[in-house]
Amino acid sequence: MLDSDASTAKTLTLVAIILQTIFFAIGAFATLILSLFFAASRTITYNGTVTRTVVSTGGVTIVGLIFSIFFVIAIVWILLDYFLIYKKLADGKVQEAETPSLVLGLIQLILGGVITGILLILAYVKIRDSLQKNPPQTINMPQQ
User: Fold this and answer.
1) CA-CA distances (angstroms) from residue 44 to 32, 47, 52, 59, 121?
2) Closest to 85 in 3D by CA, of 117, 49, 44
3) pLDDT tens figures, 103-132
4) Are 45 and 133 in contact (CB under 8 A)?
5) pTM (2 decimals)?
6) DSSP labels, 61-94
7) Under 8 Å between Cβ of 50 and 43
8) Residue ranges covered by each domain of the chain
């Protein structure tokens, strides 16, 4: 059972993951619209007569390649946040989620994920508060 601080950290992490997913969906939609814009057919006229219609595929390829790299990185971030922080908190492994929440929060903050970075750093603070209230139990082995 998680205490209130660890539960708050879990909720903050979930909100960060949801926001990342929403930003991912918005980016995918914007990329689709941008690709359709670049792929739109262009009609070339000469002295008022239509000479040919051209469909541009170069813009689609360039936009697709550039944004596919960003999408792969976004999916990796979402999965890292889920497996390294949220899943560990959900399983009650609060101490194991401490370092990843700080590291991923700082990296996301530096790389432009300001909102999610701040949320993960706040989750780190809540994990620290939880660990200070409930220090992890160590098992003392009898000496021979």
Assistant:
1) 25, 10, 6, 18, 54
2) 117
3) 999 999 998 889 999 999 999 999 999 999
4) no
5) 0.78
6) HHHHHHHHHHHHHHHHHHHHHIIIIIHHHHTT-H
7) yes
8) 4-129
